[in-house]
């Protein structure tokens, strides 16, 4: 998707197709759950396998230009970077890594904003913590992620510190912390340039003007999170 707005267009397009065609399909009664990220869909199907294949064929007949593909299993299935698998009567999740995967993490000496580079190992460790539900697998998954960062030039001390911090929180806590940060801080997104740090400093310095001018707006009680 070469354009910045392409994911939004694709998301709207898929939402319209769902409303107009998929929800009214005679096979829709077999859909227990339907979660979509742009054009990738995770489905829990309660019908027979043959009915799933017929539903897939129906979609491709209606939208031949899209070319839907289907991957199905009674035991486990991959969705984006997550492997969802059955454990008795429960569903668990683990990291999914393609067999052709290469370590493409950003090099530590890359000419990117330092705060972004230095926080990358933390965000990826946190991703591992959120996805891996089996505590017995967590250490090995974190070890692999640590090695990837060290191989890309990240200081071992920084990577180890982030790993330790992640181990001290639960999966529930990671979601609550993420929700709190979104509720309490306004994100300010800017295109990166050499003056980005100065822009951030100016914004924070004068944030009190907005806070005083609009005391009834809760979002202005704290300075925004600055993204570049």
Automatic annotation (TrEMBL):
Pfam families: HTH_animal. This is Reverse transcriptase domain-containing protein. It comes from the Eukaryota. InterPro entries: HTH_animal, RT_dom. It comes from Ranitomeya imitator (mimic poison frog). Residues 1-91 form the Reverse transcriptase domain.
């Amino acid at each position: 998707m070469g354009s910045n707005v392409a994911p939004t267009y694709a998301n709207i397009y898929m939402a319209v197709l769902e409303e107009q065609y998929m929800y009214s399909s005679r096979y829709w009664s077999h859909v227990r759950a339907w979660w979509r990220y742009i054009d990738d869909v995770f489905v829990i199907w309660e019908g027979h396998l043959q009915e799933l294949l017929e539903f897939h064929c129906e979609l491709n007949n209606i939208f031949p230009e899209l070319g839907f593909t289907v991957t199905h299993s009674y035991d486990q299935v991959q969705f984006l970077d997550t492997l969802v698998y059955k454990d008795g009567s429960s569903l668990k999740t683990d990291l999914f890594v393609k067999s052709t995967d290469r370590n493409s993490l950003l090099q530590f000496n890359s000419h990117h904003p330092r705060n972004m580079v230095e926080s990358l190992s933390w965000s990826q460790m946190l991703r591992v913590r959120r996805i891996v539900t089996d505590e017995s697998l967590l250490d090995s998954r974190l070890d692999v992620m640590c090695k990837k960062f060290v191989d890309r030039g990240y200081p071992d001390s920084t990577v180890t510190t982030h790993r330790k911090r992640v181990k001290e929180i639960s999966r529930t806590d990671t979601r609550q912390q993420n929700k709190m940060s979104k509720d309490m801080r306004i994100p300010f997104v800017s295109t990166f340039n050499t003056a980005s740090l100065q822009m951030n400093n100016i914004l924070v310095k004068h944030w009190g003007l907005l806070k005083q001018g609009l005391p009834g707006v809760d979002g202005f009680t704290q300075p925004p999170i600055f993204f570049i």
